[in-house]
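Input chain follows. Return C-alpha cells only.
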Amino acid sequence: MNLKYSDLIKIEKPSRYLGGEFNSINHFDKNKISNCFCFPDLYEVGMSHTGMKILYELLNSLDNSFCERCFAPKLDFANLLRQKNEKLFSLESHTELNKFDFLHFTFQYEMSYTNFLYMLDLANIPFFAKDRNESYPIIIGGGPCAVNLEPIADFLDVVIVGDGEEVNVKLQNVYSKGMTKQEFFNVIKDFDGIYIPMLHKTHKDKFTVVDYDKKIKKAIVQDLNKAFYMSKPVVPNIDIVHNRGAVELFRGCTRGCRFCQAGYIYRPVRERTIDNICKISTNIIQNTGYSELSLFSLSTGDYPNLLELMDKLKNEPILKNVKFSLPSLRLDSFKGAYSFESRKSSLTFAPEAGTQRLRDVINKNITEENILHSLEDAFNANYDKIKLYFMIGLPTETIQDIQGIIDLAQKIQLVYQNVKGAKKRPKLTVSTSIFVPKPFTPFQFEKFADESDVLNKIDYLKNGLRAIGVNYNYHDYKTSLIETILARGDRELCKVIEKAYRLGCIFDGWNEMFDFEKWQEALKNVDFKKYLDEIEENTILPWEHIDVGVSKEYLKKERLNSRNEKTTRDCRLGCTNCGLIKFGGCGVTNKI
C-alpha cells in the first residue's frame, strides 16, 4: 500500500482499512497457502460476524496456511484507491487481493451480491470464473446464501454449502500438495459441501437448472464440542454493530417456522455442553477484555438447562462482572432467562403474525397467552422498552390479521398498565418486514406479495398504531422485491447482477444506497416475474442440485399443513421425518 497519512485523514474512519487490531495476525508467508476472508459489506458489519472470526482463527492455526481479512470499502476510500491507482488490499499485510491463493466470500444476504463484484473490481480481478487463469486467486463462496448461489454461480470457482470448519481444512490440505486449479477442482469435487459450478452443465426449464449425477450434500459438523471455536477474536479499533464477545450455544433449530430458511438449512440441532460453553466464554473474555458476552443461537431460549448454564457462567471468577445478552429469545421460552439479561431497558420479540390463525399457518407455535404472560414477566422485571417484529405479505394473510397486530399492541399496553399503573404506557415499537419466500422452506413455492396490497396494509398499520401511541417502522417493498428475485434466482441473473453493478448498484442492503430504477434497468430484458410468482410444486428449482437434508416432499407436506392451518410439533418432542435420516439422523431424535 502506497497511500500516505495525508490521504487517509481525508476519508471517513480510516481505521476501517489499516488493520493492526488486538489479536489480528500478520504473518504473510510465501511458503504457506494464503487466504483472505472477504466480507462484502462495511468493516463495522463484517467484524460483527462470528463465522468470519472462527474461520480466520482456524486457518491461522494450521501449519500450512494463514488468513487475512478484507471488507467492502466505503465509496470515499474506493475513490481514493482509484485516484492513486491502488488495488484493494488485505488489512493485515496490506497485500493486494489478487496476490492471494484463496479469497473466501461469505454471503449472509442476497443484497450483498453487487458488493462482491465491487470488491473484485477494486482488486482488478475478472468477474467470471472462465476469465481467470492460474495467476488469479480461487474464489470461494459460502454462508447461508450458499444453498442457492446460482445468481452469481458464474463468478465463483467453488461454493461451500453447510458448515465450513472441517471442509476448509480439507481444502487447505489438498491444495498444499501443489496442483493446477483444474486438478484441485477434480480432487475436491466429490467432498461433502463442495459445489463447483463450472463442472456442471445447465439446461433451461421454467428456470435455468443445474444438471447433476448426484446431489451436493451439505457439510455438517457432527459434534460442536469437538469443533474448532475461536478463543482470541480480533478486537476492532472502532465501534462496530455488535462489539462484544459471542458464543454459539447450539447450531440448528427444531421449531420448524415455515418461513425461516435458517431453521431448515442448519438442521440438525447440535448443542454444546455447559462445560464447553464455559471454557469458550472464559477464553474469549480473558483474551479480549470484552465486558459483554452474547450467548446466541437461532433460538437461545431453547438451550436445555439455560438457567443452569447462566448460573455456572456467573460463578466463573473472570466472568463475574461481564454483561450477558441473550438474543433470539422466543416468547414461549423467555420466562426466567430475562433475569440474567444485563440490559434492563429493552427487549425484542418476534410474534411474526398478529392472529393465532396466521401464527398457526406459519407454524410459529406460540399463543397470545405466551406473548402476554412473557411480557408481564418482563414488565415486572423492569423492562419498559419492547420491540415487536412482524411480517406482511405472508401466505393467506388478510386484513383481519393486520388488525390483529394493532389489537395485540393494545393488549400489551394493558398488561403494562396492570403492572405499572393505569396512567403509564410502555415504549412499544412495532416493526414489519415483507415476507420473502426463500429456498428450502415450505414457503419456497409461494407468491411474493403485490405492492398495492402491501402498501395498503402498511397504511392501515400506520393509522391504527398511531391512534394508540405505538411507534411503527416498516421495510421498503422494492428492496424486498429484488431480494426475492435474487433468493429464488437462477444463472440467468449473473449478467443481470453484473449489469446492475455496472449501472452503479452497490450497498443495496443500505436504504440510502439502494436504487430500484437501476435494478429495473438491469432486469429490463429478463422475465423476472417468474421469480416472484407462485411456483408449481413439481417445478425443477434452481437449487434442486443441493441437498441440505430436508426433503422436497417434506416441504410440500408442510406447505399443505400451512394451508390447513395445522401446526407441526417441535422436533424435540418427536421426529417429524423431515429427511435428515440420510445424514445419519439428527441427534435430538436419538435422545427421544
